[in-house]
Automatic annotation (TrEMBL):
Its EC number is 3.1.6.1. This is Arylsulfatase. InterPro entries: AB_hydrolase_3, AB_hydrolase_fold, Alkaline_phosphatase_core_sf, Sulfatase, Sulfatase_CS, Sulfatase_N. It comes from the Bacteria. Residues 1-20 form the signal peptide. Pfam families: Abhydrolase_3, Sulfatase. The lineage of its organism: Bacteria, Pseudomonadati, Planctomycetota, Planctomycetia, Pirellulales.
Amino acid sequence: MLNFTRCVVLALALVATTNAKTIADDPPNIILIMADDVGIEGLGCYGGTSYKTPHLDAMAANGMRFTHAHAQPLCTPTRVQLMTGKYNHRNWMSFGILDPNEKTFGHALSAAGYTTGIFGKWQLQSYDPPDLPGAEKRRSTGMHPKDAGFDRYSLFHALHTEDKGSRYANPTMLEGRRGEAGTLKTYEGRYGEDIWVEQILKFLDEESSQPKFVYYPMALPHWPFQPTPHSESWDPTKPQETALKYSDDMIEYMDTSVGNLMQGLSQRDMHSNTIVLFYSDNGTHLDVRSQLSDGRSIAGGKATPKQTGIHVPLIAHWPEHIAPGTSDALVDASDFVPTLMDLSGASMPDNAKRDGISFAPRLFSTPGPQRETAFFWYDSRPGWDKERFRRHVFAVNKDYKLFRDGRLFRLTEKPLEEITVDPLLMNDNDRAAAKQLAKFMQQTLADADEPPLVDAYGNREHDLTYKPAGREETNRINKRLLETGKKLVYGDESIAQHRLWLFSPLDIQDGEKRPCVVFFHGGGWGGNPAILAPQCVYLQRRGIHTVSVHFRAPKGDVTPADTLRDARKAYRWLIDNAAEHQIDPANLVIGGGSAGGHLSLALLTIALENDPAITDSPRGMVLFNPAIDLVEGWEGGREKCEAAGIDPMTFSPAHHVRAGLPPTLVMSGSEDHIITPKMLDAFQARMKAVGSRCEVTIYPGAGHSFFNYGRNGGEYFHWTMWQVESFLNSVWVKPTE
């Protein structure tokens, strides 16, 4: 962590003054403002055109505007990182919790002689409601603001969630001083941000021989979207309407609140000795769409690792000291601790490992270390309402973003734009960037143990980026994953194989319907439903129902036709029972690997006696090296058909392509000798001839079963699942009512 002396900073920064005093002689006041949920598209100075933000635009015009500032995708991860200077993998506990043993920038500046105050939103002491599974392990385990290093505090949501009250109209705040438990106070008829700005200015007015540090974590413009004092419907005496239409008013009132604070500084003639930093904790709410001056419409990316979730504004203002301009320096939330230490001459009161690099030199156009890469360890669990979340570990520079699972994105000159890099079409620059970013992630993670992977309730989850040591371990993992599904009977209860496993998203709500992917496992019509359990869990964690179907294997009196009957019986059972299991039947996709791919296509193309082919087709098919050709291809299937007296041609779905088949994604390997690329090319041509969409991807060097979890170091598992995600997003229809 870079730490300048006050004297050095003064010599570099106060070039416009004639009195060469050191900062130690006249340390500046510092105000750190952090908005709650606004990306760069929300500000005019970053090209946003949807909202009027004249005060922040003026602050940027007269200060330093950073074009590559980043935050974590969600509030607690950013707040913990911001206040401690540590990446989350070093000190994460749970959502809404700051480890009470941590030292914050409040402690450091207080020890350096600053009078410190915090006004706004806390939400770091207790978060989970009492009825959430596992909540008793987390409630009241965080840091109380009285212990956070601040002499004065006035904060929304400083205690239990059920006691938090409102942050906007008629706000409730816990108010107190260092070491005191504080008192809850409600301001009837008032608005939260107005109260906090007044309290900050009053705090600055208080007589003191010490400089002041103010941390102002705003409430705006976080949901619930409700009227502000500038809204036509503002009336704090009535119940507050919550509607998306108020998001515009709230973003603009965020600007108004900053303007009121800046006006107060000007009226007190405090601009010249007060540094003001404006930042945001994450991107804009997902339901908010904003326009940019280049014509693009931007959907908010809050809570996601997209650029729209992490690329945020950062403005530094200190008239006569920070020259107006822009900086393309890369900044993340960990950088604020060393920057504040440099600006104040303070130092953190412990020797813990921290990750930040000061951007103070950038403020004054002086030499100093620069950040080349930003790291993100992001997992908001456990915690209330976090069922839909999962862990993301990634690194970003100015040109690329790489995830730990290998996904690579190019970042363009257009802010917020990112382009997926096809792993099969990477150029030299892509490969070099991936190598550099992977090395940075590895180095950053090397000196600390990651928190365990858990779900929203604190239960352990399997990390699908983990690489099993061999097939035996892979089989054990697959079996455990299958057991996390709900085992159901789809046919004759006395037939052991008439079972399927349903994996439903944790975040599904009562009455809600979700899409579903139904998988049929491979194994030459034998095999094990656990083989595709990793694919099921992968998609389940992305909010999709998944199913792994078991069936009888052709053996003894059971023929391949009976195997197909079982598969079709399971599909029809799912259609008939979709409502009970909250499955949207209009958004069903079927798929499978190898022999399971054969069954998937045969469901729709091969009719049997008293068992017609499915004509009400699903939304799509996902086929992993599918054994769909029993004439020129899959020899084992051909032999089993012949042994049962079945003509292989009549049981070869690739030879029964018909009009009306759904969009199909086929993924296979160049070294697959059961179903060769040539055979798949012929199948694609047949699909095209009947007007059906068919995408075929051949992975170079890959053999049969290349896609399975645990094979090839997991590389192809992730590559194929990214492709599946993209395909699914292209075929889903709007959920049925």
